Amino acid sequence: xxxxxxxxxxxxxxxxxxxxxxxxxxxxxxxxxxxxxxxxxxxxxxxxxxxxxxxxxxxxxxxxxxxxxxxxxxxxxxxxxxxxxxxxxxxxxxxxxxxxxxxxxxxxxxxxxxxxxxxxxxxxxxxxxxxxxxxxxxxxxxxxxxxxxxxxxxxxxxxxxxxxxxxxxxxxxxxxxxxxxxxxxxxxxxxxxxxxxxxxxxxxxxxxxxxxxxxxxxxxxxxxxxxxxxxxxxxxxxxxxxxxxxxxxxxxxxxxxxxxxxxxxxxxxxxxxxxxxxxxxxxxxxxxxxxxxxxxxxxxxxxxxxxxxxxxxxxxxxxxxxxxxxxxxxxxxxxxxxxxxxxxxxxxxxxxxxxxxxxxxxxxxxxxxxxxxxxxxxxxxxxxxxxxxxxxxxxxxxxxxxxxxxxxxxxxxxxxxxxxxxxxxxxxxxxxxxxxxxxxxxxxxxxxxxxxxxxxxxxxxxxxxxxxxxxxxxxxxxxxxx
Length: 482
Hints:
By secondary structure, this protein is mainly α. It has three domains: 13-205, Growth Hormone, Chain: A (Up-down Bundle), CATH 1.20.1250.20; 207-262; 265-468, Growth Hormone, Chain: A, CATH 1.20.1250. The protein has helices at 3-7, 17-38, 43-50, 54-57, 59-70, 72-82, 84-104, 108-136, 142-171, 175-178, 180-194, 208-231, 236-258, 272-302, 307-314, 316-335, 338-355, 364-392, 398-427, 437-451, 453-463. α6 (72-82) crosses α8 (108-136) and α16 (316-335) packs parallel to α18. The longest helix is centred in the middle third of the chain and has 31 residues, at 272-302. It is globular, with a radius of gyration of 22 Å.
């Protein structure tokens, strides 16, 4: 008997409660993804309105990434200890209040501070959504549910820039935050009514030291990765952030090995299916984010296209992802996760390899074909791989598993952009502003060929991840010594 059949009989509306759960978690993921992408296009207007420097205003986007990513494990573990419903509803409330405060901010400092508060709500939503979702659906429909959620998340990322530009142009930049409020209020009411009640607390103590050191390690690592392209890896601030990330990471591992109830049970990574799937997710998002960084340089600097034309070409990737993600989840329920996830990464590698062979005079159909291959590959990969992660984690570690899934995505994105920027700047024979189109095209080709290796590595992880079976509900008792 599945958790959904035990706890979630059909409601008075005649709609199976699992669909209400899907609606709530998908809407939360959509809003979180939308807010991660909707702001970027509005930053120049925010800078002008608040009379702020670009280096200051970029923190409106950066603080959201760093705060939400570093807080994922904290809220994932709290959910495992005390239940999903209360923390998820709190996350929705925090996100709504943060959105309102962002729109009402009268200065750049207030906007950055309220954006960090909003990101805490996003972290609660993103960490808990996968675990809540699979607890509502039977195992035979896990891929379907996660595929639908991933589709909506990709949709939020896809329409974010266009919607942000439209709202900013018509109503001003505060409207990009106010748009969350009516949707969020409706979803908050649905969540309060339809999310299943929390189970009694586990009785295990929380591990604040472990959660804090991992948060510091992630925040410092993301700061170094996101600022390295602008400041350079030899800048004192980047070196300090890198050293802090290493020191906090080492302290975290030492604490977790000794704690009787760690925030992150490192024994999870002894399970090949789980650890291979997390690594595959990291490698996949690393490669895809590198494309989002490099392609604008190619389209604008090498081929001479306008920003509008470049944006239309780049839409091929998210549209392809949206078109197949849900179907890939259903397929994984029928044939297992290994085949679709592996095939998806091979398609992505092929797309990147094609991009690595484009010349400055490449016609648009060739470019779009390569981008479509990448998008179809990512869409084919994501839902099955998410299903493998959540399906292989013990039930009492679903919050932590969802948090690690989210962290693999955000850290992968940041790593990919940093690595792509490093490859691009070191390959150019002149500064970007003075580089010839052929030189820009050559630098982008080099980056794409190198990046094609990462989805190949992810395909190997997918292929060798092990049989499609769940980890035992109770993880092995770890050794806390040494």
